[in-house]
């Protein structure tokens, strides 16, 4: 796909669905090696996953990831999937780490692949399966 085709696919998707607008977008004209990436504004622990879930509901082949940065200060959340036309995309955001918020049981530098329903409510340590980065 060309950059123009990638931009058009993303524009059409944003036009077709009432989605939270990305704060930044990165496109690679060779989507077989790198998905388009859209970063959403940083969210508060009270509503960390609602914007990601809105996007996830419009994608196919969807997976999610939560990753606590090595310094331990924040958790990065992402949803990866495909737009209806097949273009791969990764939507991500971050939030400040709290002991009772999303990713509470993650050690610094660890990641997990939570079920997509998880961002609707905070993760508890028992719900997490840590995967080292």
Number of helices: 2
Secondary-structure class: alpha+beta
Order of helices and strands: HEEHEEEEE
Number of strands: 7
- Strand arrangement within the widest β-sheet reads 1-2-5-4-3-6-7
The radius of gyration over CA amounts to 15 Å
What does the model show?
Helix content is 16%, strand content 29%. It has 133 residues and is of the alpha+beta class. It starts with a helix and ends with a strand. The protein has one domain (3-120). It has 2 helices and 7 strands. Strands 1-2-5-4-3-6-7 form a 7-stranded mixed beta sheet, with helices on one face. It is elongated and about 40 Å long.
Describe this structure in a few short sentences.
With 133 residues, the chain is of the alpha+beta class. The longest helix has 14 residues.
Layout of helices and strands, plus pairs?
Elements: H1 3-16, E1 24-26, E2 36-39, H2 50-56, E3 60-68, E4 74-82, E5 88-96, E6 110-112, E7 131-132
Parallel strand pairs: 2-5
Antiparallel strand pairs: 1-2, 3-4, 3-6, 4-5, 6-7
List its traits.
elongated, 7 strands, 16% helix, seven-stranded mixed sheet, 2 helices, alpha+beta, disordered C terminus, 133 residues
């Amino acid at each position: 796909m060309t950059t123009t085709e990638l931009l058009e696919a993303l524009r059409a998707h944003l036009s077709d669905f009432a989605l939270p607008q990305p704060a930044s977008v990165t496109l690679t004209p060779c989507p077989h090696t790198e998905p388009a990436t859209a970063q959403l504004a940083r969210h508060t622990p009270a509503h960390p996953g609602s914007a990601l879930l809105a996007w996830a509901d419009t994608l196919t082949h969807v997976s999610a990831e939560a990753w606590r940065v090595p310094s331990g200060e924040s958790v990065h959340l992402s949803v990866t999937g495909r737009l209806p036309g097949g273009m791969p995309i990764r939507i991500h955001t971050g939030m400040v780490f709290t002991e009772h918020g999303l990713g509470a049981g993650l050690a610094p530098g660890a990641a997990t692949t939570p079920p997509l329903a998880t961002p609707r409510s905070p993760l508890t340590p028992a719900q997490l399966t840590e995967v080292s980065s």
